[in-house]
């Protein structure tokens, strides 16, 4: 997990990344959001799309309205409904008259360690996109790519004209995605990584951190990293019964203490996947080998 770049960060500033893509950084940095949530504006003419509007923060909403600049918003599109991604959809829709389009609504009681990982209970899409469905505007086409794992409702959006993929939290260059059960699912996450590895996307624009210019190389490395973690867990399990928390100090050397809970949930996600495959067992909170 990489540390954030030196300040100042371009919070609230419109950054033009390519002719059809601009980015606005929200003021919500944290150990889990890096420098903050990145909202993307797609389109170069008078009809645009907004991807991952971010937190319901008046400063970010004002920055987005300024960036839109009176243009028509064809759709406000959300990759998933964690609270750092979708809550601004409703006020932005009220400000622009745009429909909310994208992932399905999902509300769970989150018992995990992340304050920003509870689900957005205000999210009410006007249209849910299935895998392969999309939105169009002048010179742009965005196609939904279903990528469950980080959450069960996670979507990426492919910009067909430029080969860009907006990856939300599924793939990020600065960190691996946190997979938090019960909604987060490691088996589904790995299958979604395999799905992206088979695609020809030119560049990834994640919701946190820098763009990824070598997508397939990064995804291949992420798959390998997860397999290494899995093998590590199987090896530790062979030494005797353990709780999920017992794995963390043995697997994550030098871990920021603020991330210990997230690491435990990631281990739990791996253990649940191993259990489904007959490679681990448990009695209450204690895990054993098969």
From TrEMBL:
The keyword Transport does not apply. GO terms for molecular function: hydrolase activity. Pfam families: Lactamase_B (PF00753), WHD_BLACT (PF17778). Keywords: Hydrolase. InterPro entries: LACTB2_WH, Metallo-B-lactamas, RibonucZ/Hydroxyglut_hydro, Sec-metab_biosynth-thioest, WH-like_DNA-bd_sf. Residues 36-208 form the Metallo-beta-lactamase domain. PANTHER family: ENDORIBONUCLEASE LACTB2. This is Hydroxyacylglutathione hydrolase. It comes from Tsuneonella dongtanensis.
């Amino acid at each position: 997990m990489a540390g954030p770049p030196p300040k100042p960060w371009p919070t609230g500033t419109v950054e033009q990344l390519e002719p059809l893509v601009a980015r606005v950084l929200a003021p919500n940095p944290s150990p889990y959001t890096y420098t903050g949530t990145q909202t993307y504006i797609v389109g170069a003419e008078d009809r645009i799309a907004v991807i991952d509007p971010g937190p319901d923060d008046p400063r970010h909403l004002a920055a987005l309205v300024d960036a839109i600049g009176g243009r028509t918003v064809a759709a406000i599109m959300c990759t998933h409904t964690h609270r750092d991604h979708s809550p601004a959809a409703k006020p932005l829709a009220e400000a622009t008259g745009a429909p909310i389009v994208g992932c399905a609504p999902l509300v769970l009681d989150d018992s995990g360690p992340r304050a920003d990982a509870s689900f957005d209970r205000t999210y009410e899409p006007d249209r849910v996109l299935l895998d392969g469905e999309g939105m169009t505007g002048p010179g742009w086409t965005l196609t939904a790519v279903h990528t469950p794992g980080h959450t069960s409702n996670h979507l990426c959006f492919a910009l067909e004209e430029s080969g860009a993929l907006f990856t939300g939290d599924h793939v990020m260059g600065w960190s691996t995605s946190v997979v938090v059960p019960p909604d987060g699912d490691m088996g589904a996450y790995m299958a979604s990584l395999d799905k992206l590895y088979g695609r020809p996307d030119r560049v990834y624009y994640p919701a946190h951190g820098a763009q990824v210019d070598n997508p397939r190389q990064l995804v291949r490395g992420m798959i390998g990293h997860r397999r290494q973690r899995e093998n590590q867990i199987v090896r530790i399990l062979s030494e005797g019964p353990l709780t999920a928390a017992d794995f963390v100090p043995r697997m994550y050397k030098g871990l920021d203490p603020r991330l210990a809970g997230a690491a435990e949930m990631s281990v739990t996600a791996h253990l649940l996947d191993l259990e489904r495959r007959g490679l681990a067992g448990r009695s209450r909170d204690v895990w054993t080998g098969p």
